[in-house]
Amino acid sequence: MAHVSMAVNGRPASADLDPRTLLVQFLRENLRLTGTHVGCDTSQCGACVVHVDGRAIKSCTVLAASCEGAEVTTIEGLAVGGRLHPMQQAFQDNHGLQCGFCTPGMIMAAVDLVSREGSHLDEAAIRHGLEGNICRCTGYHNIVKAVAQGAREMGAAATPRAAE
Fold first, then answer.
1. E strands in the chain
2. How far is CA 18 from CA 1, 11, 23, 28, 60, in A?
3. Domain 86-157 falls under CATH 3.40.190.10
4. Beta-carbon contacts of residue 156 (< 8 Å; ≥ 6 apart)
5. 84 in Cβ contact with 73 (< 8 Å)
6. CA geometry: angle at 120 spanning 115 and 122, to 5°?
7. What is this structure's pTM?
8. Which fold has domain 2-77?
9. Residues 137-161: tens digit of each pLDDT
10. How far, CA to CA in Å, does 110 sit from each of 75, 103, 127, 149, 150?
11. Strand pairing partners for 7?
């Protein structure tokens, strides 16, 4: 067993885990944060995207133990004070979902995209930025509209991160 401690959505979280436990398993099974979905187990679909120390990662291919001391944000951690995050609200406003399975990962990837690239994103930049996220229901039209609106609304709060 490995002892793992991290902050998840601003709260301390720790557990003794099998060292092979994936971050997505820890979030879903130990913490009952089921908004992070498992779609493929191969990092192809992006349904499991969360933020670790401010960067989007696919939690189905990251060991929980590798996140020791990290700050993890899941889809459940975006809303503040009962108010949806601007990107969540934009997905609702633009019906950027059908079945909703991919939506948490899409939103988390979109928030990361805006934090990296800024709020002035054209359609091509949005489509390129979401390439690692698959939606099996839609043609992405409403998803792209939602990300564009969410980016605009995140506006000045989103300062591009320098490339590392």
1. 2-8, 11-17, 49-52, 55-58, 71-73
2. 5, 22, 11, 15, 15
3. no
4. 119
5. no
6. 110
7. 0.91
8. Ubiquitin-like (UB roll) (3.10.20)
9. 877 899 999 999 999 999 845 455 5
10. 12, 10, 10, 11, 8
11. 12, 71
